[in-house]
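Please fill in the sequence for the structure shown.

STRUCTURE ENCODING:
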């Protein structure tokens, strides 16, 4: 039986060997990281080593890293009324771009009547002039703009947005879950006040995320109470093995980033050119700067559900967009926000590459697409 081709890396990634080794070692530690005896101190060391690794990877300070159960929880924790920064805040409303992940669009702990939306261009990039207008009137706002879109791969102008937001007295949250490990991301360089990450997008385990705050951010109220863990920001005994795996994964991802990004971009361009040549396929956000590993495409008459099944039968794993929306027969909210009609949005297929993707994988995916194009788009 031929080995399958995995092209759904934006949904989740294989576990890196470094993360697996770190987790196996952590599972042998019996101590609770809140305990003061030797066993507890060893468990605490594993947690704090990982906290330092995550902080160093994104330009933060260890004391400002909060581990959570996932990126979704990290986003929900970040979206909190009352946050304030040096000479800014407290924020009283939330503005989110229309192409954000569902966990951001839900608004976190802001009431629905305090949530506004920022429109995007046809290329899926935030309209900064619209953002300026939204911030002009009203109380200080927390603005949430993702670093890179999980469906199209479009990179957002977060540094420019940060300047606009700060000039208006607000704070900027960046969902950098898809960016970490694929492009360089530093909270200080882009001006993010809060940023969120997820381990399983970079070769770490599922079930671990992190919120990283810039120094001087205050007013964060814990969503989970009942213990003093995570510097009183999230109650509950830490998932030591998962956190250790996160730390190991982020170190490995950052070390390999320059070479991996270059190689993935080359493979993506080859795959994209091949896709475009068949049935006149359209590549979404092709006019925007994008992640080096992501392609979202469609062709006239294509149905995403059918295409995903067809690829799967050919031994190629792809998706129809966000994994959090898998199984839902509805158009992508991202493409709807970009101005595409429902029929076009329902035909979008996402292919995303990773560090172990090989040229042969791309060739097999293109062969599968040639077969599907001849079958599904006939007539």
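FILLED IN BY: designer on duty
SEQUENCE:
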């Amino acid at each position: 039986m031929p080995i399958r081709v995995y092209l759904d890396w934006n949904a989740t990634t294989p576990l890196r060997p470094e993360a697996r080794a770190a987790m196996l070692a952590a599972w042998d530690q019996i101590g609770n990281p809140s305990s003061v005896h030797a066993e507890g101190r060893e468990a605490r060391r594993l947690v704090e080593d990982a906290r330092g690794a995550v902080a160093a990877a994104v330009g933060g300070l260890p004391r400002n890293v909060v581990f959570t159960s996932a990126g979704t929880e990290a986003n929900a924790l970040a979206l909190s009324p009352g946050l304030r920064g040096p000479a800014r805040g407290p924020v009283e409303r939330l503005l989110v771009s229309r192409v954000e992940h569902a966990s951001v669009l839900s608004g976190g702990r802001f009431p629905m009547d305090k949530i506004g939306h920022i429109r995007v261009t046809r290329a899926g990039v935030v309209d900064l002039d619209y953002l300026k207008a939204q911030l002009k009137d009203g109380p200080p706002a927390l603005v949430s703009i993702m670093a890179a879109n999980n469906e199209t791969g479009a990179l957002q102008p977060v540094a420019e947005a940060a300047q606009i937001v700060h000039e208006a007295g607000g704070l900027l949250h960046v969902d950098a879950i898809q960016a970490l490990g694929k492009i360089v991301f530093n909270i200080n360089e882009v001006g993010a006040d809060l940023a969120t990450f997820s381990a399983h997008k970079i070769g770490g385990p599922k079930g671990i995320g992190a919120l990283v705050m810039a120094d001087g951010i205050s007013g964060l109220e814990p969503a989970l109470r009942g213990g003093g863990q995570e510097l009183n920001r999230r109650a509950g005994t830490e998932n030591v093995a998962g956190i250790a795996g996160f730390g190991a994964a982020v170190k490995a991802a950052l070390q390999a980033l320059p070479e991996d990004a270059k190689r993935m971009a080359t493979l993506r361009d080859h795959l994209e050119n091949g896709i475009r040549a068949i049935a006149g396929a359209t590549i979404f956000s092709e006019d925007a700067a994008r992640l080096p590993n992501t392609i979202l495409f469609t062709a006239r008459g294509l149905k995403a559900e059918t295409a995903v099944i067809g690829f799967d039968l050919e031994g190629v794993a792809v998706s129809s967009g966000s994994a959090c929306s898998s199984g839902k027969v509805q158009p992508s909210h991202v493409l709807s926000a970009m101005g595409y009609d429902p029929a076009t949005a329902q035909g979008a297929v996402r292919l995303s590459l990773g560090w172990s993707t090989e040229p042969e994988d791309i060739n097999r995916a293109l062969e599968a697409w040639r077969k599907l194009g001849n079958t599904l788009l006939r007539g």
